[in-house]
Design a protein that fits this description.
Shape: globular
Largest sheet: 7 strands, mixed
CATH topology: Rossmann fold
Distance between the termini: 35 Å
Number of domains: 1
Strand order of the largest sheet: 3-2-1-4-5-7-6
Bound molecules: S-adenosylmethionine
Order of helices and strands: HHEHEHEHEHEHEE
Number of helices: 7
CATH class: Alpha Beta
Number of strands: 7
Radius of gyration: 15 Å
Helix content: 25-40%
Strand content: 15-25%
CATH superfamily: Vaccinia Virus protein VP39
Length: 183
């Protein structure tokens, strides 16, 4: 998807995208760094957009692992559908519905959730449901990995997860903080 088309989706989306361009490969590397790909069998992605992290995840995942991506923007869904990989399930629904889809895919829990959701622009009650359901559906050693453009999400994430570590990359527009949260 061209940058022009991405920006036109931003204006049509009434604030649900929360970025002016897709993330950089540098940010993708930081987001995926905490993942133990040898042992990850079920990975969930929230807000894949044009698929920067989706493609990076698929490159590193084991042949028998599964990736479920939740995206509400139908133009991005069309873009994601061009990725041909039997391990990928593209779900055109909101992240808060995680439980019903992981169960339908035959899993009882998720090893990692990689989230790009723009918490600053999503209503509080929806963020609350997304974070509660994420924590509930993570496996014992599961991790919720989220990027944001500020440190404002730290307190909120600490109230849902037992530990929150923060990493940073200046090589993204805008520069981004990566929150690595333990169940
Ligand atoms: C900041 S963009 C990130 C796109 C991409 N992952 C990247 O980093 O370039 C956030 C994405 O979250 C999606 N989104 C917003 N609310 C959502 C929700 N409740 N469930 C699933 N996706 C959502 C938007 O449509 C958008 O594609």
């Amino acid at each position: 998807m061209s940058r022009k088309k991405f920006i036109s989706e931003v204006f049509k989306s009434t604030g649900t995208i929360g970025a002016l361009s897709p993330s950089s490969s540098f940010l993708a590397k930081k987001m995926l760094a905490p993942i133990d790909f040898d042992n990850a069998k079920c990975i969930v992605e929230f807000g894949p957009g044009t698929g920067v992290f989706t493609k990076a995840l698929l490159k590193k995942m084991s042949p028998d692992a599964k990736l479920l991506t939740f995206e509400i923007n139908t133009a991005f869904i069309d873009e994601l559908k061009t990725i041909e990989d039997h391990r990928l399930e593209i779900i055109n629904d909101s992240a808060e519905k995680i439980k019903q889809y992981i169960e339908a895919a035959g899993f009882t829990s998720v090893d990692y959730i990689v989230s790009s959701l723009p918490f600053a622009v999503i209503p509080d009650e929806i963020v609350h449901r997304i974070l509660t359901n994420s924590d509930d559906n993570l496996s014992e050693n599961g991790r919720f990995i989220q990027f944001q453009y500020s440190l404002n999400a730290k307190k909120k994430l600490e109230s849902y997860f037992s530990e929150v570590k923060i990493n940073f990359t200046p090589f993204n527009l805008p520069p981004a903080f990566v929150y690595n949260c333990k169940k």
